[in-house]
Specification:
Largest sheet: 7 strands, parallel
CATH architecture of the largest domain: 3-Layer(aba) Sandwich
Radius of gyration: 18 Å
Strand content: 5-15%
Number of strands: 7
Strand order of the largest sheet: 3-2-1-4-5-6-7
Distance between the termini: 41 Å
Number of helices: 9
C-alpha cells in the first residue's frame, strides 16, 4: 500500500536516533517535510531530513521553540509525533523512588508532550492534523521497579485519550503507540552486556525470551515508524483516542492449564 504524504508537514521530537529517527524516515520517505528536534543532531537524522533543530526539549521553552521553528519554516504543522521520553531507571521498589526521579520522569515523558502539543494545536486544528504519542507497554504493566516510568507512560496514554475526546470533533486525531522492547540504545548499550560477561549480540538474542515475546524477536524501530506513518496518513481516519500495543505478544493473557 502506497502512502503519499506530499504537501504535508511533520514535527518529530527526540528524533536523533531510535524510534524518533525511524518516524522521521517513515514520514520523509512518504514525501512529508519533516522537522526533527533533538538535543543532539546526529548524522543519521541529517541524512533522513534537511530540516533539523538542536533543542533541549526538557526545558520549559524547548518544545514551543521547536514548534515555532516548524511554523516559521513550513507555515503550519500537519503531524506531531511526540517521541521524546525515557528515564528508565530501575528501582528496588516504591520507597526507593525519590522526588527527583519522579519529577524528572514526568518532565521527560509527559510535560514535553504537553508543551509541544499546546504549541502545535492551533495549527493542527486549522489543518485537520494528527498527533501520535509514543508511549510504552509499561503503561499497562504493574512493575514496582519501574513505577515512575510506567505511571508516567500511563499518564501519557490518558492524555492522548483526553485530547482525542476534546479535539476529534475539531478534526484532530490523537493516538498513542505503546511498544514493547525495541532495539534501541536502551538495549544495545554495550555496558549492559559487559556486566553479564557476554557480547551485545548475545544479550540481544536473550531479550525476547527474558521479556516473554511470543514472536521470539525484538521489535525494530522501523516497525514503530511504519505504524506512526499509518496513523498520520489519514488512511484509518476512524481510529482516534486509541492506545495501540505493539509488544510482540508480551502482554498476551496467561495460558490456561
Amino acid at each position: 500500500m502506497q502512502i503519499d504524504m506530499a504537501g504535508k508537514t511533520a514535527v518529530v521530537t527526540g528524533a536523533g536516533s531510535g524510534i524518533g529517527l525511524a518516524c522521521v524516515r517513515a514520514l520523509a520517505g512518504a514525501g512529508a517535510e519533516v522537522l526533527g528536534g533533538s538535543r543532539t543532531v546526529s548524522p543519521e537524522l541529517l541524512e533522513a531530513t534537511p530540516h533539523v533543530m538542536e533543542v533541549d526539549l526538557l526545558t520549559p521553552d524547548g518544545p514551543s521553540a521547536l514548534i515555532q521553528h516548524a511554523l516559521d519554516k513550513f507555515g503550519g504543522v500537519d503531524v506531531l509525533v511526540n517521541n521524546v521520553g525515557g528515564g528508565v531507571k530501575l528501582a528496588k521498589g516504591f520507597l526507593d523512588i525519590e522526588d527527583e526521579t519522579w519529577l524528572h520522569t514526568f518532565e521527560l515523558n509527559v510535560m514535553t508532550t504537553i508543551r509541544a502539543t499546546r504549541a502545535a494545536l492551533p495549527s493542527l486544528v486549522e489543518r485537520g492534523g494528527v498527533i501520535v504519542n509514543i508511549g510504552s507497554m509499561n503503561a499497562h504493566l504493574a512493575d514496582p521497579t519501574l513505577g515512575h516510568y510506567s505511571i508516567a507512560k500511563a499518564a501519557l496514554s490518558n492524555l492522548g485519550k483526553a485530547l482525542s475526546a476534546e479535539y476529534s470533533s475539531q478534526g484532530v486525531r490523537v493516538n498513542t503507540i505503546s511498544p514493547g522492547p525495541v532495539r534501541t540504545r536502551l538495549w544495545t548499550n554495550p555496558h549492559i552486556a559487559e556486566r553479564l560477561g557476554i557480547t551485545t549480540e548475545e544479550f540481544l538474542k536473550m531479550v525476547p525470551k527474558m521479556a516473554g515475546l511470543s514472536t521470539g524477536e525484538m521489535i525494530e524501530p522501523d516497525e514503530i515508524g511504519t505504524l506512526a506513518l499509518m496513523f498520520a496518513s489519514g488512511r484509518i481516519r476512524s481510529v482516534t483516542g486509541a492506545d495501540y500495543l505493539i509488544d510482540g505478544g508480551m502482554t498476551r493473557p496467561p495460558a490456561r492449564d
